[in-house]
Amino acid sequence: MAQGTVGTLLASTSYVWYGNVKATLKTSRTAGVVTAFILLSDVKDEIDFEFVGTDLNHVQSNYYFQGITNYTNELNIPVTDTFGTYHTYEVDWTPDTLTWSVDGTPHRTLSRNATWNATSNQYYYPQTPARIQLSLWPAGLSSNGLGTVQWSGGLVNWQSPDVQNAGYFYAMVNEVNVQCYSPPSGAKVSGSTSYIYDNASGTNDTVETTNDATVLKSQLGTGTNMSAAYPSQIGTGSTPASTSEIPTIPGLNGAGTGSNGQRGGSGGDGGSAASGVSGSAPSGTASVAVSASTGFHGFAQNPGSSTGSLPQGENILQGSLFAVLVTVVGMLAM
After folding, report:
1. Distance CA 279, CA 214 (A)
2. Looking at residue 193, what DSSP letter applies?
3. Catalytic status, residue 46
């Protein structure tokens, strides 16, 4: 993380809907510098490990439901020298419980029942498909809110020894290990490609696993019209309109806006539309040991919901972007 930047973010492109996620890493250090290992959903459900650069002997565990701020959710976990020593930070996330562990030792367990909010009549518990993120960010910038700066230990010192020696602040990530659990009982499964929300409430009972497309044909596309493309011809004439000025999505054949990815092209339908696409789910069958825990709750957003065990034989969430085990060796630097 160099001066003048907003930090570095590594994020998975596939989603986890309950599972076990571990990251072995060394953090950065210094006032105002925050290292983070989190799970974040498209509706802002969030599960956090955060490391403030002035406190190398604690990690902050935290969670949010749909981005609703509640500062009482944070709890410090003791750890030794997060900058100089690799530690493994682990999130075990099921529909009923959420456990934060360090080096294999559980330090905090949150019960879904403990998050019941009688006013809104729902659980304030992370419950929707999330992406894994590893980041390093300058919370201690003068442009940030005073509370954020104070929480991060003060303003960033860009003349610190780490910056002088390396040219930037850095964190080291040695390994990321992901095990996805099968969907809870009551899950809506009609495919194996993507997660969508069928209701704007964005709770777990509105999530559906489908075969809907997850890639926009062009920047004209949306979650409700994935294959939208700029027309190859305009008006009644036969001369194709110029599309060189239209933004395109890299990675398609030719990176163009036509129906087959070519500029002005017309072949192919570009895939089906997806309503409210959240993100891609892992495809195929992965040889992952799926949790056989029982007693997980279903999807009802009230205390009287029925219970059921995790169904076996579901392939959709038995893998992830990282498959069974991906070793990520690198430096978070920018």
Report:
1. 6
2. S
3. yes
